Batch of 3 targets.
Target 1
Amino acid sequence: MASFSFTKPTTLTRLATLLLLTSSITAEINPDCAPGGNFDLSFWELQLPIGFKGDPKTISSASLQGCSGYENPDYFFTQSGDGALIMKVPGSPSSAGCVTTANSLHCRTELREVDPSTGDPTSWSPKAATNRLTVKLNMTEADNSNRGTVIGQIHIDDSVSSKPVCELYYNSGGDISVGVEQTRTGGNEVFTSLANVSVGTVFTYEIEYAGGTLKIAINGEFHTLDTFELDAPDSYFKVGNYNQGSSPSEVQFFSISVEH
């Protein structure tokens, strides 16, 4: 499993980097470019809800990058006008014929963290000083299931477990909650309500798992969460539209950044 590390920046440097990244995404956005022309997708590979049962189509980081990078008009594209990144899922295998992984019953259009220098899947230690995913988004169409759609998550390294550390859910009522697994074998998530943000309203979330502590913020309001018996397994970030039900869902992204 490939890995990567970054020199720990000062707080001031970190803030400056975040401000610069946000500016480069939102102020200079080009609606005529593929998503890779507006977002730094060197940290990500893409999984789509198409392909073969148990083996959905994956797009490499290298193929995603640049103004002429990969896009799909049905699932992953730049919105005309404001240039936001759109990720769509048509529903479930039974309602829409979409494709899932071998370990899931649900379809997704989702980015998975990779090593930006090689494009290979990577992971990091939750005991490190900085592991943070920061996202600005708008849920424009939410699945009508109880939990709705997973819009961000931390997943345990694939060599350790097929389960997530935590999943951030958004449903059609605007309820945002997080489910944290109690053990690496999974199937025993503990759910915590975080906020309510109406469908069609832009908001931000941050997921941080550093120094052995898991925190999630909605619009800057942080919640510290118990990680039970997980014992800080090597992990990686995912962000996108991981639909938990059978109706269509659409997420509109304005910025995505990751820090280590």
Target 2
Amino acid sequence: MAQENTEEFYARLKEQLEESTEWPSNYLYKFIVPTNEKKIADIHTIFDNTGAVIESKQSKKGKYTSISITVNLKNADAVIEKYKEVGTIEGVISL
């Protein structure tokens, strides 16, 4: 995603989150990542010390892993911050 499109996306996401959610609130992240222990561990590390509930499930052939993370966050900026952190891991798709 180009930098400008990324910033537009996050600005729109923040606006939607602020309009639709009362903060603090639980937020559900969903990611698809190539099955790779390091990448999965990196995602877990980003959510360490947040009290997050993390569930993982491999695809039928084991090539990909879906990761669902439910975490209580204080505001829309905190949600976006985590998306940006996970976005630094190559190959991760945010749903």
Target 3
Amino acid sequence: MDNIVKKSKKKKKLPPGVRERDGRYTYRYNTYVTENGKKKRKFKETASYSNPADAYEAGILIKASQIQGTYVDEKNISFGDWADKWFEMYEQSDRKDHTIVTRKSRMNVLKKEFGDYKLKEITPLQYQEYLFRLKKSGKEKNTILGLHSTMTMIVKKAARPPYEIIAKDFTTGVEIPKFKESVQSLKEGKPKELYLEKEELAVFINTAYAMAEHAENDHERMIARQCARALHILSYTGLRIGELCALDEDDIDEENKKINIIKTLNVQHGIENYILDTPKNETSIREVDVTSRVIALFREQAIEKKKARLMFGQNFYKKEDFVFVNMHRKPGCPLSPLEIARYMAEVLREAGVCKKLSPHKLRHTYTSLSAEAGIELAAIQRQLGHANDRMTTQVYLHVTKSIRRTNVEKLESLMDHL
């Protein structure tokens, strides 16, 4: 009888790693935590369970996630370590290559400031002071907005299921530093980002072609004429430069005078490693109506490309039939947006146009010309490929001020005879 009593008091054998305390069971495991910028090995336990099998299962899941590299230490992970984990997940998302590069750059800036802090210990006040410090140090509004956008993405991921590493998102409710416009810019009433006025555009385009004709040799003339044509088309269509450089022959519908926009060029890793991405967003996938003059420019470009194909022979890239092509080390590959931008800068200097403009600003030039021609804002936005854009609206309202003034005068004239 005594032997039976002794056997009944003998403890059950627990699964490996499981410990019992006061009738509750936990799984003990080791992990690495970051303290004062250094990683240390530390033993931890799972939550307690009423039976050993549940504790063991919870522990095995943690072990599996450690092996896969997806486990995070909810209590002690540093901002830097979590940011790296977040970026691994972000990088796998369906985003453009250049967007991923930009996010990583901003993340690294944030890591310099907060990297060694435990994520759970960063306070809203601490982050708020950081944003104000950025402005005080001379950082521009767009730089601060970009950093804040990235920080928000990192922290929201940590606060939401299934991770829930922190109880509260410390970026919620913080105040973005205010940037006031100068008195002079308000007096002028012009958009801060500039565009070419109608007369300036005429000088700009004429100078672009004139410079091409004065190039040193036939090869250089071909290159310059192509860039001049590209700038001309950008001004008259409102295309993004990446959309223009991604065009192939099948995208041009000469009969119906339309351009089919379904891709954009990404040369983040060099022209020979170009990528054809989908457009910026859903509204960017569109048909752009063009004039007979633009169709004529595309025909001229097709003739120029045939000359280049003959010139380079077997060295001409034939995988894609791009409209605008590289004529340097990688003939036949797409024309680099950087080459167009460099030529534009030279043309602006030669033309004496004292404005700091990029090819993208030619979209604003297209907006101003369309507004002056009396085209409605909604129609302009459809051509440009976005539903709403602050700068487009600002340019449109600036150009149409005189039209609005005429409409007011018409109302007064109507009422005068009463």
